[in-house]
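QA checklist item 7 of 12: single-chain prediction sanity check.
[x] sequence parsed
[x] length recorded as 174
[x] structure emitted
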Amino acid sequence: MRYLATVGEREIPVEVMRRGPGRYTVRIDGREREVEWRGSGATRIITVDGREIEATIVPEVAGGRGSSRATGASRVLVGGRDYPVRLDDPLRRSNRAGGSARTGRIDVCSFMPGKVTALLVREGDRVEAGQGLVVVEAMKMENEIPAPRAGGVVAVEVRPGETVEAGAVLLRLE
């Protein structure tokens, strides 16, 4: 299967060939990698060419409270770094206006379990893509959760001091 992966602002062609349960050959920029995928839920162990990597993957969800409509984008945390990632089928991509524009309400979720240490925005604030929204402390590190796109904050769902799980809705943007 061929995809166009968008990591931050960089677009990367990716080809994935399934080799068995949880096993794949992945071709990125012409280089092949053997990949094994283990785990369930938000945290996964990914083995790439024999090297294990722990990743927390949280799909972004569009819509209001209780919605489960995936936007096609995810937040991926690897080695303490947060990466916004989107996988698109290039044949379907032309149907999306502007390639990566997203409209409507989206939930901004925590990509790790932790404690909310700071809210950087309030309901009604306008934010820019990449602007810090919430700070979540996990494993003695403070992680600033950025806005996946520009928009207005329509609901803040957490308070400082509150403990959250990976995938918990922190706030909603429109």
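[x] summary fact logged: The chain is about 0% helix and 60% strand.
[ ] second reviewer sign-off
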